[in-house]
Amino acid sequence: MSEPNAELKNIIEAALLVAGQPLTIEKLLTMFPSESPPAREEVRAVLEWLEEEYANRVVALKQIDRAWRFQTREKYAPWITRLAEERPVRYSRALLETLAIIAYRQPVTRGDIENIRGVSVSTDIIKTLLGREWIRQVGVRNVPGRPALYGTTREFLEHFNLKNLEELPPLSALRDLDVISNELNLRLDLEQGADTTLPGVAAPGEESHGGLEEAQEPATMSEAQTAQRE
């Protein structure tokens, strides 16, 4: 790979270092005069160059969906988190179950989630997930009552350090919520000895129960259209 324009590289590197959120190519292009912006291919080439340049540093350039950000490597997280003044937020088992079902089975309705978990979903859990911007309404199901369909967001990918949903750990490896919490870097407020098996997800060689089949039904044409990512 040939080295990109040095000044363009410096501008993009500086922008990524000071940005408080991941930046898309479209956002990076807004920094330049409208009459003489760099080509998208040039910006992408710079991003690829920076990814290689930072490959062996304590800070890495990470792609999140269609955006990029600089972040410290995960191995240094125990030291970096000690700088935070606020106590880490602790999440309940029920909230994590709900989030996991949405992430793996989206788009899903609240009824789908309740069928898989076998219990009702608290309105506060949905409000918390919406408030954290980890999920959003992506459409409605064409059935009586037109229940809302939920899916994950770019903020979900950003928080859990995922490039895309394909990077989610396989379900077969994540029946235990403690394992999920470690994989997704969540701190859970779980009682010692509590059953932390994710409902509706079967281990290899086992049958799946608890309404999973209903949640896996293909979406209607309307759902597929409304569930497109932004």
Automatic annotation (TrEMBL):
Keywords: Cell cycle, Cell division, Chromosome partition, Cytoplasm. This is SMC-Scp complex subunit ScpB. The lineage of its organism: Bacteria, Pseudomonadati, Pseudomonadota, Candidatus Muproteobacteria. GO terms for biological process: cell division; chromosome separation. SUPFAM superfamilies: Winged helix' DNA-binding domain. InterPro entries: ScpB_csome_segregation, WH-like_DNA-bd_sf, WH_DNA-bd_sf. The keyword Cell division applies. It comes from the Bacteria. Residues 196-230 are annotated as: Disordered. It comes from Candidatus Muproteobacteria bacterium RIFCSPLOWO2_01_FULL_60_18.
